[in-house]
Recover the amino acids of this structure.
């Protein structure tokens, strides 16, 4: 799939910007603080319903503005054209597809954008939440009923946590239905997450082979969030007292995590900062490649600040691989990366939130 155009209003320093796009590689070049990353952020928002940058959602709104909107024309590989709109008015988000209102999850399900950016190494070196988000985004796009189990789980978790924090004594019978529900939804989520990671392994091996061959074979380890072999519903009932003392549910799918181990770097601490970044990039590319295998088209791939994140050889390797599969690639940099000089590339100059085409 590729974005044919993006129109962004009221996002950070982008007041009202229209970007016509072509299927191959596009570079947004310009000085620091020009608004380049914000352009990628807009594309990513359509596909995730959140930014890849940490911080309050309010910071996305242009200072002084009370709304933001993103319109996109997206062409699928089978040549269908979809028109999307995502808007935020006050604290409310609204999504549209071809003129009709849709839910945020329907929008996210239709539009696939993956992004490698300076914060991506958190996927390897950061906390479990980032890895769970990555995993769930991937599962959501290949297993359509994952969202149903995920919603059931979130609802039951909220209810159980509210009971745990209740000031009055709550009888056990009130906990039980939520613990049964948590156990049932967690078991569905767990199966789908595990299947996804085992399918991802082949894609990860091939992207690691291209980017980090020196690290040897790669292994993906999954932890589901509660003891192996135990029944979650029984476990929750048994540790209710402890959870009341802590004020939240301490085991379950919301504590799941995964990690990567290499033959020649069995612990994360064995990786250099650059190797962490390359591993994170390999994960992003593997996810895109698995998406392409299952859905028949590559997601849009964003590479933020490519030249300062990767050495030239790795920049070339990534861009050539993405060109070869025909993915749309959106790259940012203070200059056009040398690695992109050779192939066909659309270039925009970005300055103070304004865009002008260069090539
Ligand atoms: N809510 C906001 N309202 C208005 N301007 C904002 C807001 N949030 C950020 N900005 C400004 O918008 C610009 C956004 O920068 P962005 O990160 O997109 O730039 P960039 O071109 O990627 O920069 P760099 O090369 O330094 O990474 C910055 O100048 C920043 O100060």
């Amino acid at each position: 799939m590729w974005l044919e155009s993006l129109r962004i209003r009221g996002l950070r320093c982008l007041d009202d910007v229209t970007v016509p796009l072509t299927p191959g590689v596009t570079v947004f070049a310009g000085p620091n603080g020009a608004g380049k990353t914000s352009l990628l952020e807009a594309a990513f928002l359509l596909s995730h319903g959140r930014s890849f940058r940490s911080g309050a959602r309010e910071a996305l709104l242009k200072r002084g503005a009370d709304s933001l909107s993103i319109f996109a024309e997206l062409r699928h590989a089978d040549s269908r054209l979809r028109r999307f709109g995502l808007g935020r008015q006050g604290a409310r988000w609204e999504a549209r597809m071809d003129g009709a209102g849709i839910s945020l999850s329907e929008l996210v399900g239709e539009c696939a954008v993956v992004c490698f950016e300076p914060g991506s190494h958190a996927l390897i070196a950061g906390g479990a939440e980032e890895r769970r988000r990555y995993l769930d985004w991937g599962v959501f796009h290949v297993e359509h009923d994952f969202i149903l189990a995920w919603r059931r789980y979130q609802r039951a978790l909220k209810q159980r946590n509210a009971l745990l924090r209740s000031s009055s004594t709550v009888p056990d019978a009130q906990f039980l239905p939520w613990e049964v529900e948590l156990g049932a939804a967690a078991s569905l989520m767990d199966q789908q997450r595990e299947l996804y990671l085992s399918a991802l392994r082949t894609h990860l091996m091939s992207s690691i082979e291209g980017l980090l061959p020196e690290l040897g074979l790669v292994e993906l380890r999954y932890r589901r969030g509660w003891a192996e072999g135990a029944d979650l519903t029984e476990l929750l009932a048994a540790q209710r007292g402890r959870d009341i003392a802590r004020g939240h549910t301490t085991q379950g799918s919301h504590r799941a995590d995964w990690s990567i181990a290499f033959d020649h770097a069995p612990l994360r601490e064995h990786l250099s900062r650059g190797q962490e970044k390359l591993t994170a990039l390999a994960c992003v590319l593997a996810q895109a490649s698995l998406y392409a295998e299952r859905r028949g088209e590559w997601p849009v791939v964003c590479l933020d600040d490519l030249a300062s994140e990767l050495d030239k050889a790795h920049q070339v390797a990534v861009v050539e691989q993405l060109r070869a599969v025909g993915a749309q690639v959106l790259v940012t940099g203070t200059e056009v990366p040398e690695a992109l000089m050779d192939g066909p590339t659309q270039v925009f100059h970005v300055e103070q939130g304004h865009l002008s085409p260069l090539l």
Remarks:
- The mean pLDDT is 93.
- The longest strand covers residues 2-11.
- The CA atoms of residues 157 and 327 lie 39 Å apart.
- The pocket of adenosine-5'-triphosphate is lined by residues 12-13, 30, 32-38, 59, 61-63, 332, 334 (CB under 6 Å).
